[in-house]
Amino acid sequence: QIHFPIALFKKLKGEKCHLADLEDVEPNIWLSLQKLLSWSPTTDDPNREFEDTFCLNFAVSYDFFGEMRTVGLKPGGESLPVNFDGRSEYVDLYCKWLLDTSVERQFRQLAEGFGLVVDSALWSLLTAQEAHLALCSEPELDFEDLRRGARYEGYGGGEAYVGALWEILEGFDLSQRKRFLAFVTGCDRAPLGGLHELRLVIRKTGEEPIDRLPTAHTCFKMLDLPQYSCKEKLRWKLLSAIENSEGFGLE
């Protein structure tokens, strides 16, 4: 699964990118630009002090297959110093160059190809944030949110066994969480509204003595869970089920 930055979806939706969008694309450059904006002068001449400290012009240099090239961020920018009053303009122009101008030709081709694959009225209804969540999901899977939307059949939401189950699930690492989601829903990503939107159903299907593994019905987002004798056995059975399932889970 490839994680695309939200800046890509903003561009595909025709939305303007800003400095905040740069953090996911070029975190080091984003941090440097943030420092420019937060810099505080210590003399009575902040413009001169800023110029002497950072020695910047309204231009950017980049490596083009081993050849260093410099391009102005605005007309005459190569010889125009950036001072304290102009630092915000410099940051805006730098972001525009990096996220738009420098990749204009490549992005145009990508957008044309994307339009051939995704030609749906639904796409026009999504914001960039919603499109990003739908296609890339969130890097973190909040199982506390999954618990908030859960329902139970045969178990009480407040009983100790259910509490032990959630302690196990919330202790999973990201890989195990994705496997569990794929096991019970057929998809390892969170829906747009968050994991509580899944309305996971946890159904009691027997109790000790019992040796079978938990099973899942992905169409109904239902986990069939026997009541094992202890938390350790519950964890072992649950991990065995999700790590050995294929496709849409065990039935």
From TrEMBL:
Keywords: Transferase, Ubl conjugation pathway. PROSITE patterns: HECT. It holds the Pfam family HECT. It comes from the Eukaryota. GO terms for molecular function: ubiquitin protein ligase activity. Transmembrane segments: none annotated. InterPro entries: E3A/B/C-like, HECT_dom, Hect_E3_ubiquitin_ligase. Its EC number is 2.3.2.26. The active site is at C219 (glycyl thioester intermediate). It catalyses: S-ubiquitinyl-[E2 ubiquitin-conjugating enzyme]-L-cysteine + [acceptor protein]-L-lysine = [E2 ubiquitin-conjugating enzyme]-L-cysteine + N(6)-ubiquitinyl-[acceptor protein]-L-lysine. One of its GO terms (biological process) is protein polyubiquitination. Residues 1-251 form the HECT domain. PANTHER family: HECT-TYPE E3 UBIQUITIN TRANSFERASE (PTHR45700:SF8), UBIQUITIN-PROTEIN LIGASE E3C (PTHR45700). This is HECT-type E3 ubiquitin transferase. It comes from Alexandrium catenella (Red tide dinoflagellate).
